[in-house]
Specification:
The complex is a heterodimer. By secondary structure, chain A is an alpha+beta fold. Chain A is 48% helix and 26% strand. Chain A is built from 16 helices and 17 strands. In chain A, α12 packs across α14 and α14 runs antiparallel to α16. The longest helix of chain A has 45 residues. The mean pLDDT of chain A is 88. By secondary structure, chain B is an alpha/beta fold. Chain B has a 5-stranded parallel beta sheet, sandwiched between helices. In chain B, α1 links the parallel β1 and β2. Helices cover 44% and strands 23% of the residues of chain B. Classes of the chains: A alpha+beta, B alpha/beta. Chains A and B meet through α10 and α11 of A and α1 and α4 of B.
Chain lengths: 500, 133
């Protein structure tokens, strides 16, 4: 018996040790998980907090709150309402709870916690509610941020102005936004059954696959290409495709992220423009080769005729024929000039001092200036440089100056003011005269047209402004005009700022 | 005495060749004026002569736009010929396209780019220029 008692005692001691071990392990788990204990004794109206529960609340050692104080830790509003509701239910109906709530600690910090409550009943009456209290602030915030990022991604994906798609490694359209559907004419469900190979134009597939392979092999981070898809109705859709890859932490490819921009309209427009340019170049070629050979023959024939048969030149028609032939040659050379302008410009651009060029042109027209008693005032900033071809800049200045002189108003002294201003990318210089002016309402649209003149001056030739405008535009600039009849005209010429 | 002994005009335009013949005769430009109506005829006839150095014209007036073999093709062929005697080549064309001028300049065997029409004054000038050099 005695022995048995001793054995029993030994066993109890052993059990006690084990319990202690378990308690220690439990304690450690609780502290690692930041999990504390609490208990509300309803009979005695006391509250018990374990050390960790107290630490979570950032309360002083030994602090234990009253029931009301305990509740006041919960942030007023949603969290406090929730805890009151679930606690009341636990007490009244025996419903256990497990909720996420926000508390304001004794030090005033707001943290998120998990509160688990279990109620204990005796004789149909709730005696106590106890449970666990866990600091989940970090994971809660991280989870929240993750949710926000997910939402951000979802919104970006769905409402992006261009098409966005997740493509599986096998080429399946795993996820697409509405824009992709609009572009290709398929529903999301229809696309999910297709691979991008299925609807890619065969001529563009090889390049696409090659780039994709390089992406997989890590040779590139992303790629961009223009390619053609066939939409549901077998129409070609031109797309600017931009592809990158999503990998997991280990670097293993997960899927492709594709962005699609519909450039069909642009492509069609470009094709049209190219075709039109081609025709224009052909036209230029016809002008400068074929037509020109006939006009030169004409002029040669006329001069030979005169030399061999001097009498024929006395005929009334002869000088008119010669004049027509000369005009024809001149017109062709103008036409040619305009057409070749664009190609000439690229290689011959220099930074030119605007002030100096205006001075230079003034000298060349000195006799015209003096004989018409015109005042030319050059107020252009000496530090302004423009990008231009010397011959063009001279021709542009010359044209506006002689234009102003030509269309001066009788009865008042002609003056021309030239001044300049600097814009970020342009130098704008204005040529302002006090001459006849132009009725812009009537003639504004055809001001720079070929052979449009607005004054019955004998030597008016519309070709001047037309060529000048073409030259300005070939240099990447533009020209504006302001005018009032009988007040004067201001031409404002924008040329590229050479300082930029 | 004529300015030159033998010049050659390669051009498919009958009016131009008719007039050039007249103008050249007017200024007594050359004793002998040889005409070809396209590049192929000219090549067939001129190639062996250039190689042998016999009966070679002093100047060739070459048009650019011609059927069968145009002026450019003619130049490309003639560059390959290992000729004995230097021949002056003028590109004479109605083209005022700067691209053509530039292209002609790229051939070292082309001495000058002349824009039609040919006038007596022009021929005198060519002659004067040549005597200068």
């Amino acid at each position: 018996m005695k022995l048995k008692t001793v054995e029993l005692l030994d066993q109890l001691v052993e059990i006690g040790k084990e319990i202690k071990n378990y308690q220690e392990i439990l304690g450690r788990v609780k502290s690692i998980a930041k999990m504390g204990l609490w208990e509300v004794n309803l009979e005695k109206q006391t509250v018990f907090w374990s050390d960790i529960t107290r630490q979570i609340h950032e309360a002083e050692d030994g602090y234990s709150p009253s029931v009301e104080e305990g509740i006041n830790f919960y942030v007023e509003g949603e969290s406090r309402d929730l805890i009151i509701k679930v606690f009341t239910r636990a007490v009244e109906k025996g419903e256990n709870y497990d909720v996420e709530v926000e508390i304001r600690t004794a030090k005033g910090n707001r943290i998120w916690a998990r509160a688990i409550g279990i109620s204990e009943f005796k004789d149909g009456k709730c005696e106590r509610v106890y449970g666990l209290f866990q600091d989940i602030n970090e994971s809660y915030i991280r989870r929240q941020e993750l949710e926000q990022q997910k939402e951000l991604f979802r919104q970006t994906f769905e409402y992006a102005p261009n098409g966005m798609a997740l493509i599986s490694l096998e080429g399946k359209w795993v996820q697409v936004n509405q824009q992709v559907c609009n572009m290709l004419g398929y529903t999301k469900e229809e696309l999910a059954k297709l691979t991008f190979h299925d609807i890619t134009h065969p001529e563009d597939l090889d390049l696409d696959l090659k780039l994709l392979e390089e992406l997989m092999a890590g040779k590139r981070e992303s790629y961009q290409m223009e390619k053609r898809y066939y939409d549901k109705y077998n129409h070609i859709v031109w797309v600017l495709l931009s592809v990158s890859m999503m990998k997991n932490k280990a670097g293993k490819p997960l899927h492709f992220v594709s962005q699609l921009t519909d450039i069909t309209e642009k492509k069609l427009l470009l094709e049209k423009t190219l075709a039109q340019n081609e025709r224009l170049l052909n036209f230029a070629h016809i002008v400068s080769h074929n037509l020109r050979s006939h006009t030169s023959n004409f002029s040669m024939l006329l001069s030979m005729m005169k030399m061999e048969h001097p009498d024929t030149a006395k005929n009334d028609y002869y000088p008119m024929l010669t004049q027509s032939s000369d005009k024809l040659q001149e017109t062709l050379s103008y036409l040619n000039e305009i057409v070749v302008m664009q190609s000439e410009v690229k290689d011959n651009i220099e930074a030119l001092n605007l002030y100096e060029y205006i001075e230079k042109v003034q000298v060349s027209i000195q006799s015209q200036v003096t004989s018409t008693n015109t005042d030319i005032i050059n107020r252009v900033d000496k530090n302004h440089f423009v990008e231009a071809i010397p011959a063009y800049l001279e021709s542009i200045i010359l044209n506006f100056l002689t234009n102003s002189i030509k269309y001066r108003a009788e009865g008042r002294k002609a003056n021309i003011n030239i001044f300049s201003e600097e814009h970020p990318h342009f130098i704008a210089f204005s040529v302002k005269d006090n001459g006849l002016g132009i009725d812009l309402k009537r003639n504004g649209k055809k001001l720079f047209g070929m052979y449009k003149t607005f004054h019955d001056k004998e030597d008016s030739r519309g070709i001047g402004l037309f060529i000048t405008k073409s030259q300005i535009e070939a240099l990447g600039g533009r020209v504006e005009v302001e005018s009032e009849v009988n007040q004067g005209t201001t031409f404002k010429i924008y040329l590229r700022n050479a300082k930029v | 005495m004529s300015k030159f002994n033998h010049v050659c005009v390669i051009d498919d335009d009958p009016i131009y060749t008719y007039l050039t013949d007249k103008v050249m005769k007017m200024v007594d430009f050359s004793n002998h004026i040889e005409f070809f109506k396209d590049g192929e005829d000219a090549l067939n006839s001129l190639k062996p002569r250039l190689r042998s150095g016999r009966n070679v014209p002093e100047i060739i007036f070459l048009d650019l736009n011609m059927p069968i073999i145009d002026g450019w093709q003619f130049l490309d062929e003639i560059v390959k010929v290992n000729y004995k005697k230097k021949v002056i080549i003028y590109v004479v064309t109605s083209s005022i396209d700067p691209a053509d001028t530039k292209r002609a300049e790229s051939y070292s065997i082309v001495d000058k780019y002349v824009v039609k029409p040919i006038t007596p004054e022009m021929l005198e000038e060519l002659f004067a220029d040549m005597n200068k050099n």
